[in-house]
Amino acid sequence: MPINILMPALSPTMEEGNLSKWLVKEGDTVESGDVLCEIETDKATMEFEAVDEGVIGKIIVTEGSEGVKVNAPIAVLLEEGESMADISDAPAEAPAPKAEADPKPRKAEPNPAPAAAPKGERIFASPLARRIAAQKGLDLGALKGSGPKGRIVKADVENANAQPVATTAQAPAPAPQSADANAVMAMYADREYEEMPLDGMRKIIASRLTEAKQTIPHFYLRREIELDALLKFRGDLNKSLADKGIKLSVNDFIIKACANALQEVPDCNAVWAGDRILKLKPSDVAVAVAIEGGLFTPVLRDAESRTLSSLSADMKDLAARAKTRKLAPHEYQGGSFAISNLGMMGISNFDAVINPPHGSILAVGAGQKMPVVNAEGELDIATVMSVTLSVDHRVIDGALGAQFLAAIKRNLENPISMLA
């Protein structure tokens, strides 16, 4: 029977994508691993490879199509011995175009409850589907999957009627909703404005930040860090490394200081996993990179064991590819902790929003000359940088967060110790 090629979920947050370009045409023979098309996600343009071998019998979604839902058929693959005439037997239908809002409310039709999976049988479901099912109180064993080989995917869980697993906990109250677009536009009907539709990245940012502020109990810890020793040490290092074309930034030292601090206070090297905490062993540090229309947080893995020059080169490469949306998902997913540095843009201090499931994020302000009292008790002038640690209280308690921030401060004020 002909096989439907479905729009893949190329990242955990992807709900729809744009089919930018087909690299095959109808009648072409393909093997597993051959690149079929280019798909633009909310984060990047990525190649989609075939998982089966056969002949491209029909292309359903034309290149340039936007807003193609995950798991919607995009093409039909014919197996050995099949012909174009067999395609009529395949349930291959192009995804329906996005419809305008129906002014007449329709009564929801109840979905019949599917037969439950036999007891003890393994249930195949995507991690996102499992998370949504847990949030909605759904029994995955009672759902029928529409993904490859019957795998339960996000759409199956979202479309299912609530069939809660036995529990004594009271369902949480629904989260407050943002103002309706029509109501807001009506408010400004007599004013001139330009409507800016949200692209995929902006939608994801809005969703993630709303989730973060509604579900994560943030608290904030602030310290001031003197940078004069670091600036002198950095200047000396850059002079000695000039022949190799290496130039270290203050941000490179901040990344290394935080990576080392995560090892010194290992209980802070952790993420929230719904009903448990995952404590990581390596220091995988995410760093916010601003791009047009949004931001990426590429992750520097094993940062505690790497040299400053290695971190610097890797960060420059990741930032450059982030700006052209050429990062692969594994390069911006993961980590337990993030750094957001607006000091280079002149911001003195700010509070950053935690990127779930991270346990904390460090907001870095600009280094500024200001009066301080030195070790001898005399008034002096020093370059001082303000930092704020935003902390998930479910993962890290106040005293523990204070130890972590103290370790970051100690490393930055004694930079030579980071090379030991």
SSE blueprint and pairings:
Blueprint: E1 3-6, E2 16-22, E3 29-30, E4 35-40, E5 45-49, E6 54-59, E7 65-69, E8 73-78, H1 127-136, H2 154-159, H3 181-187, H4 200-215, E9 218-226, H5 228-241, H6 250-264, E10 270-272, E11 277-279, E12 285-287, E13 289-291, E14 294-296, E15 299-300, H7 308-323, H8 329-332, E16 337-341, E17 360-373, E18 379-392, H9 398-413
Parallel strand pairs: 12-16, 16-17
Antiparallel strand pairs: 1-8, 2-4, 2-7, 3-6, 4-5, 6-8, 9-18, 10-11, 12-15, 13-14, 17-18
Structure description:
The chain is an alpha+beta fold. It has 3 domains: 3-89, OB fold (Dihydrolipoamide Acetyltransferase, E2P), CATH 2.40.50.100; 117-169, E3-binding domain (Dihydrolipoamide Transferase, Irregular), CATH 4.10.320.10; 217-419, Chloramphenicol Acetyltransferase, CATH 3.30.559.10. The protein has 9 helices and 18 strands. The protein has helices spanning 127-136, 154-159, 181-187, 200-215, 228-241, 250-264, 308-323, 329-332, 398-413; strands spanning 3-6, 16-22, 29-30, 35-40, 45-49, 54-59, 65-69, 73-78, 218-226, 270-272, 277-279, 285-287, 289-291, 294-296, 299-300, 337-341, 360-373, 379-392. The strands form 5 sheets. Strands 9-18-17-16-12-15 form a 6-stranded mixed beta sheet. Helix 6 crosses helix 7 (308-323) and helix 6 packs across helix 9. The chain is elongated. The N and C termini lie far apart (63 Å). The model is unreliable at 89-116 and 162-173 (pLDDT under 50).
